[in-house]
Structure formats: structure tokens, C-alpha cells
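Handoff note, outgoing to incoming analyst
You'll be picking up this chain. Sequence as last confirmed:
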Amino acid sequence: MATAQVITSDDYIPVDPDQARIGQLLFYDKILSGNRNISCGTCHHHDHAGADGLSLGIGEGGVGVGPERSPGTGADRIRKRIPRNAPSLWNLGHNSVEVLFHDGRLTASDIYGNGFDSPAEEWLPQGLDNLLAAQALFPMAAQFEMAGNLGENDVIGAVNNRIDRGWPIIAKRVRTIPEYGQMFVQAFDHIEEPGDVTIVEIGNALGAFIASEWQSHDSPYDQWLTGTPLPEDAERGRQLFFNNRCASCHAGPLFTDQQFHALGLPAFGPGRTRRWDQISRDVGRMAETNLLEDAYKFRTPSLRNVALTAPYGHNGAYPTLDAMIRHHANPTAASAAWTPETANLPDVPWLATVDCAIREDRREMARQAAVNDLRPMTLSDADIADLVAFLHALTGATADKQPLGRPASVPSGLSVD
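Most recent structure output, in case you need it:
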């Protein structure tokens, strides 16, 4: 069994509260999106534990929040589902976090002289405080997430030229709003007037908010670490978890090894395709490393507050913890029994032919089936129920009472989802 590790508030990135307050407002402000119609909080909402409750999200052009979000209508309707499940934000500000995104395409590195190895390469600006600050910039530059479609706004037009060229447009929008401009002057020592604000300060404010807002280390399991017994079923589940192979990948204080593994999850959706891909597949980590041994591998998620963040898997294939555990126990049988109706995909008739197209490609399905890091294990129904009980014991007691929460309004005057 791995050594138990207690988390305290000292284990997180230090945050300036004034910067976090700006970040809270920006997080829910649609001013950061190309068409001013979606915010970070739309897909990472407080009401849905920092996620959206969907298998594959509905990004720019959609309407509403969470499982009730619709794909929009007319010329504004979505043109593609978001190809991967919206990850929750819990504990991403913990000092142990080294890599972000399902495929790990953002890490700390000196390779480009700006502190990060990222999709923006040398064009990511210098001065970003941490991984969270850097990560916050990329949805703004993503067509189907926040930037919008070509011809719709100046942000996507600039991004289409080069990934970094939309960020100055967004920064100007923000700093010319008087309330934001004054807040930045007060919160950042080097900002003497609103005109000094760049996308770097915006990213740093968002990073400060995410790091401080989504901390969780007061679960029944945390109490167990300091001597309080777990309920009997959760205790049996804890022993199963640590005495079997679960903890080999879900290791450490956040229950993740931050490595990449192929789980053989059922394939569906548009895929996160590379420029030369002719089919709607998602090769996972291999897209970043170009190494065949990384094919179909995805980052191990943290299990803290996992009971709050269904559905599960990089594509949200399974709606319940029970179903996800059963897949881990027997991935071949679980994948064979899986049907598209299992996923939580709001109906989008004009995308229906794409949703399961990959499943008709027998060669691609064979390639994915041949790569699986899970070894089958025997678990009874009672064992699975106990494991589920233990995973529920990883839910923070104050997970629904974050420090700042969702603001009622934002300085742009745009609606708040």
C-alpha cells in the first residue's frame, strides 16, 4: 500500500486574493470568447463541480449550462462537439501537478524560453505564473471552444493566422472596461494604468482563481488519514483499492500518477484529430509525442471529488462510477457491451453521422483494441459497491462551498451562465 499523504493548504500555489477575485469575474465573463457568447464557467461550472456533466461538451454556439445545454440554432449552431470530456478543476493548483490536458500537451519546460512546453511553442508570452495561468489561454484560441468560426469575429481571424494573435484582441477588450482596468491596477504591482494589461495578467488572474477556488482536501478519506474511521463499506473499498492495482496509477495525494495509460474506452465522437488524420479518431498522448508506444494513452485523472464529476473517461464514455470500475475490471467485455446511448450526448441531428462514425472503421477499432494497459481482474458486485463507497469517501465536505463561487454579474455586462 502507498504511503498515506495528508494535504494542507500549504501544498497549493500561493495566490493573491485580489488577483483571484479578478479571475473569478473573468472566468464567468463571455468577453473572453470570440463571439462573446461563452465563458470558461460555461463548461466548468460551479453547479456541476467544475465540469459540465456531458460526455462531450457543447462549446461556442450552444445555449445553456450542463446536461441541459443545447447545440444552438441557425447560423450560430455548433459545427462540432468538443472532442473530449471537460475535465474538472479540483486541486489543479496543488504543487505536485506537473502536466495538464488529457494528452499532457502542457508542461513546465524551458524548451521555448517562456517556461512551458505548450501548443503555442515560442509564441506563448513570457510572464505566466504557473501551469494554470498558461492553460487558461488555450480555450480562448480554440475554434469550437471559445474563439468561434472563421468569418464570425476578429479573434478567430487572428488565431487562424497564428495561435497567439487573438490574445491581444481579448486583452484590449478586457482592459478597456473601466472596472476591470482599475482592478488590474490595484491587484498587479507592475500595472500602472489599464493600458498595461496584457493577456499575461488575464491568464495569471484566471490561474489564481482556479488554484484557490477548486481546492478540496476535507473528505472522509482525509479524516481517515488523521485517525477517523471510514464507514464499513468505504473501508472495505479502501482496502480493495490499495491492495489491488488501482493505486498503481491512482497514486499520491491527488490519486493520480500524472502518467498516460491506454484503457481501451469505447470510441465515439469527432475525435481530437491531427491535421493529417482522415478519420475521427483520437490517438491521445501520441499526438503530442509522435511515439507509437503512446498511442491511445490518456492522462490519469485525479479521483478527488470524482463522485461529483460524471461522466467518466477522456470522452465521458461511462455515466457512473460502477460502470467505469467494471470497465477497468474487464475492458474487453465492457467495451463490447457499450452502446452509444450510454453516453450523455445531447441530440445534435446534423452531427449524428459523425458521432459514431469511428466505430464503423474495423481497422481503427482493431488498432485501439490491441493497445490496452488494463489487466482483467475479478471483482464481485459487492466488491464494486465497496469501491464505489470508497470513491464517494474522496468527496470533500465543503466541495459545494467554494470561497468565491459564481458571480451574479460581470463587468462586461454580458449574461452569466
